[in-house]
Write a structure and sequence with these properties.
- A 4-stranded antiparallel beta sheet has the order 1-8-5-6. Strands 3-2-7-4 form a 4-stranded mixed beta sheet.
- By secondary structure, it is of the alpha+beta class.
- The chain has helices spanning 75-80, 132-137, 141-146; strands at 31-33, 50-53, 71-73, 85-86, 91-94, 102-104, 114-116, 120-123.
- Strand 5 and strand 6 (102-104) form a beta hairpin.
- The chain is globular and about 50 Å long.
- The chain has a single domain (21-146), classed as Adenine-n6-DNA-methyltransferase TaqI, Chain A, domain 2 (Alpha-Beta Complex).
Length: 147
């Protein structure tokens, strides 16, 4: 754990400091990173299919995932990397590269699932422990790197 994490005394009175993993929904693969590099390469990209979330999708001002710059993989490729899938409502973070990027996948997106790129991780937030919007808007590179 990093030593420069916010202390409990620096948080609003009703808040508590938590790790990313402690906020994960109680289901398999609720807090995971993208696939190993050789498991997803540009050779896997196709014209349409399951969208791949890359760093370019986390740069939109505000909270929501930018859905304008997707590349895609086949349904079969996404199925083969099922542990690396993200879903509507999940939070997506950059886990290497430009740390501090975070976005929430809109619950009303037209896509039913997304594949994470190698540089991303996702968190399905346990709604009984945290509000996903607050988790996204208050995330920081320190919090992400402590995962």
């Amino acid at each position: 754990m990093a030593t420069d994490s916010p202390s409990q005394s620096s948080l609003p009175r009703a808040w508590t400091a938590q790790t990313v993993a402690s906020l994960a929904a109680p289901r398999e693969y609720s807090c995971v990173g993208g696939p190993f590099g050789s498991d997803l390469t540009t050779k896997d990209y196709v014209d349409m299919g399951v969208p791949v979330i890359r760093g370019a999708n986390l740069t939109r001002p505000g909270l929501w995932l930018d859905e304008s710059e997707f590349v895609y993989v086949t349904e079969a490729k996404a199925d083969s990397l099922s542990r690396n899938l993200a879903y509507p409502g999940d939070l997506v973070f950059t886990q290497r590269g430009t740390l501090g990027q975070v976005a929430r996948i809109s619950p009303t997106t037209a896509y039913r699932r997304f594949l994470l790129s190698q540089s991303q991780m996702k968190l399905a937030v346990d709604d009984s422990k945290a509000d996903p919007i607050m988790s996204a808007s208050s995330s920081s590179p320190v919090l992400v790197s402590d995962w």
